[in-house]
Amino acid sequence: MFGGHPRLLVTTAVEGSDTTQRTYEINTPVTLLGRGTDCDLRLVDPGVSRHHAEIRVEGPEIALVDLGSTNGSFVNGQPIRRVTLVDGSRVTMGRTTLVFRRDRE
Fold first, then answer.
1. How confident is the model at residue 1 (pLDDT cuts 50, 70, 90)?
2. DSSP β-bridge partners for residue 78
3. Nearest-angstrom CA–CA distance, 47 and 96
4. CA distances, 73 to each of 3, 17, 32, 70 (Å)
5. Strands (DSSP E) along the chain, which ranges?
6. pTM of the predicted model as reported, rounded to 2 decimal places
7. Both ends of the chain: CA-CA distance in Å?
């Protein structure tokens, strides 16, 4: 649907259990990320707010927008409110790390 096959590689580290990794394809204009059961990409992490952030497809660009989360969102170690993601951007929310990937078209 969107050029370059955008996706997130999601890694969650939980105390007392193994680290899990999964891939989430971005194929809708808005993807809600958070701990809530109504989120498109649910992150089971106590450091993640119920509605933590959104991934928004805006033409050829994909933006990450923090929704006023309690602990904040970080891209490549820097706190953000809104940022355009590029291939390899490392997003951190709580103990969850998401790496944005987009293949060349």
1. very low
2. 75
3. 8
4. 25, 24, 13, 9
5. 7-12, 20-25, 30-34, 41-42, 53-58, 61-66, 73-75, 78-80, 82-84, 90-93, 96-101
6. 0.87
7. 12
